[in-house]
Every structure is written in structure tokens, then in C-alpha cells.
Write a structure and sequence with these properties.
single chain; 4-stranded antiparallel β-sheet; two-stranded antiparallel sheet; 3 helices
Amino acid sequence: TRVPGFVSGGTALLPKAARGTVSHKLMHVVDWLPTLTALAGAAAMSHVGKSRKPAKPLDGLNMWSALVDPSAPSPRSEMLYNINPLCHAGQAGAPKAAIRIGFFKLLAWCFTVKGIGGDNFTGPSPAPNGSAYADHEFTKGRGLVLYDLQSDPSESINLALVPAHKAIVDRLLARLMQLASEMVEPQQWTPPYQGPDYECAECPRHPGGTGPMQPWVPWL
């Protein structure tokens, strides 16, 4: 959740009240695109590509007012980290799903989605007992872990099974369920990469192997 970033600019860009300040307001990396394009005076795209298909809404939010005005709240109230329904495959390791709303962060060892990877239901899945790759907390109950980042910034106390926090777990879980219903199958390293309907499902694998840096090797 806490990754540093900075904004640098002259007096025409940054008001005096904002220069030299530190902000702890909630912001996601996807917020940079709408923030910078709005700052440059560019309008949001309404259509994309040669086919002129209607553009989908951006996940990001314009954060400029919150960044330059210490008294302005962040327009972002939640942070989606990931939803990867491929419990034993895919590019992301466990925990495969997590979301933050306010100061509470809910994580799931895995989060299956109906229709993806052969699963027939949508929801969290606990880690197998004795798994060497999972925190023991993910083997309990539904495989959920809840942290209060305000009182426990080091994420060391699991509150998911505490009765007083049941409503919070249910609220964050419901939001994960909603977002999972809108997702597509995540990319994988091997065919069909993103499911049998993927446009490049039969494309050969990169001859140099897999890994996020592989396409850039010739330029490194």
C-alpha cells in the first residue's frame, strides 16, 4: 500500500502551499493517467482504435486537487490490488486477491471466478493445509485475512474471524465479488494465454522463454 512517489514542477505548476509537503492520501498507480492528462488539458477518450469502439471508463481518478491542496480529500476510497482466480497457475502468486477500503485490507489466498479455469462458483478459497507457500492464517475459515492498517500498519494481526469485524469482512468481500464478476481471464505464460477465445490463443511462445522482462531483453 505504501509506495513513495513525488511531483516536481515550477511555481506555475505547484502552488506555494503544496511545495515541500508530504501527502498520505490514498492513490493508485492508475490514477496518474487521468491526473496528468487532465493537467495537460486533454479530454478523456470517448472512442479508441480504428474501429472507433466506445472507450471503457478509466479505473483511475484525477488526483490533482488532492495532491496540491492539503485540505482536499482523496477522491479514491478503495484500492484493488488483484483478483487472480487461477489458484495453481497464472503469473501472480498467493495471496491471489486483495482489496482495501478505508483503513481495512482484505486478502484471499485464492479467489475463484465462475467460468474461469473450470470453476463453477465465485468466491474465496482457503489455502491447503500444510502448504509451504501460504501463511497459516489463509488455511482458516474461508481463507480470508483482514488487517486494520490504521492500528496495524505492519499487517500482523488477522481480524477476519473476529466477530466484531464480520460486517467489515462481508462488505469488502461483496466488493471483491462484484469486481470479479466484471473481470476477464488473466494472462498466463502458456497457450491459450487468456482462455480459448483469446485472439492469440494459438500463438507460439516467445523463443527466449517467459518472464516480464523477456520482451525487453534486446534493448537492455
